[in-house]
Design a protein that fits this description.
This is VOC domain-containing protein. By secondary structure, this protein is an alpha/beta fold. The protein contains two helices and seven strands.
Length: 139
């Protein structure tokens, strides 16, 4: 018996894969991690929200706070570039300067900058695109 083909995706992304919470400094980072460990009952980091979604907490370089969702783009680096370019050219998105990247040690399975991108949506909210998110996590 042949495995059925996956459904054709209606959108450019398949699901939220990583939620990143940026905090102002190391003290806030420690408090934030303590809070989410209690809330989720999870002490392994990055925190697993579901079998295929992670929560990252990072201290920002400029002392700002943010929430950033990385959406999975099915395919490879070329597909990510196509989605990124289409969102910029046809959907009112803009680049983020400097480009935002989570610390490499948090997502060791991200092999290159071609697997992760950030941009701003039409309202200025920063969103991320990622291919091959690092799941399941290896601890």
């Amino acid at each position: 018996m042949q495995t059925p083909s996956p459904p054709i995706l209606k959108g450019k992304v398949s699901r939220p894969a990583i939620i990143e919470l940026g905090v102002a400094d190391a003290a806030q980072l420690a408090k934030t991690k303590t809070f989410y460990e209690a809330l989720l009952g999870e002490t392994n980091y990055p925190y697993r929200l579901t079998t295929d979604m992670a929560l990252l907490c990072v201290a920002t370089e400029n002392g700002s706070t943010h929430t950033l969702i990385y959406w999975e783009v099915p395919g490879d680096s070329a597909d990510l570039k196509k989605v990124y370019d289409d969102l910029i050219k046809n959907h009112g998105c803009g680049g983020v300067h400097p480009p935002h990247k989570p610390p490499k040690n948090l997502l060791p399975a991200i092999k290159s900058d071609l697997e992760l991108a950030t941009l701003a949506d039409a309202a200025g909210n920063v969103l991320g695109l990622v291919i091959n998110p690092p799941y399941p996590f290896v601890r």
